[in-house]
Amino acid sequence: MERTRTVNITPASMPANLLLLLLLGVRVLAICPPMCTCSRGHRVVDCSARGLSLLPDSLQHNIHFLNLSHNRLQDLDGLLSHLDHLRTLDISYNHLHHFPVGLPRALWDIHASGNYIRQLEKNDTAYHWNLQSLDLSKNQLERVVLINNTLPSLRALNFSHNKFWTVPTNIPHNVEMVDLSHNYLLQILPGSLDRLQRLSRFYLHANRFTSLSDGVFSQLVGLQLLTLGDNPWACEDEENINHLLTWMQQTTAKILGCPCYTRPTCGEVHLVTRRTWLSAYTEPLLGADARNPGHRAPMQVVTSGYLPKSSLLNLPHIPNAANASGAEEQVLSMGGGFLTSTPHSPSTKTSTTIRTRSTKKVLPDRARSTSHQIQRCNFETAVLNLLCIAVIFSVL
Question: Any residues with CB less than 8 A from the CB of 49 and at least 6 apart, and which?
């Protein structure tokens, strides 16, 4: 009987043992690397600022967010390819000298600013069909090879603070924001922007443009914001600059840092009939020519965070009438990508068309004349009072 009882107990205990082993196995798989912090079921992993020179072990294959920024990583080639569910990767501010090979194709956002990357090869981005935001700002990029019709989902592209001399060609046609500020740009090749029908925010300030070819922006039908300040425009070369100035007078996009010391903002021709104060605005130029630094504080643009947000320029406060359109004077940077901001010192000048209260100066001669009139009026009043009293006494 005891032998029969032993045989019956052993099979009954096997499911419990298997369940225990399964739970332990799941626990091992869900472990968080000791030098990192994890949340949301270990699918959000933060290993930033840990002094890492090697990729941490024990990373789950199903993590969605991985932050490796502010470390000392030098090579990540092929080390992340197994993370098939990874959506956001931050490898900013490491010691990377090239774009990592074999990154997961499921990525939506790649942040790789603040490294030492010099070029972007065609195979680096050729298979990232899902990528929506790419930040390679503050590197040493001089050359980028983008294959036509790749990166179809890309909406935000940040190449600011690099070493480009020419605007890259074959920029993905669905992109909505491109930040190329703070480079060494001298030219935009004719036709290189014609496919960017959805481009709405284009940041070109703080470069070395002196002029641009005729019609370079004419096909940007979706353009809403363009920054051109802090470029050494050759305003004396009327033959090459006039077509740009003419285009600025006809475009519906807002332009910050208008060339040739015109106004802080220009464009927006569809608003001129409703806001006449734009045409008489007399504030000093925002983002004026860098050759005259005494005219204003130089434009300083800082791109930070995950909000595109490649160039948000703070215009001086305009009372009353400008309050109705204050949102239009604070330029939104976008679209889930990069945030750029430029401080601007307030001016002592004011607009002559939006003044709601004014005080007139009283000239000295006019003041003395007014004083004499007041004294004369008081004397006549006293004489009338005396005559009235005299009439009353005579009646009595």
Answer: 69, 70, 71
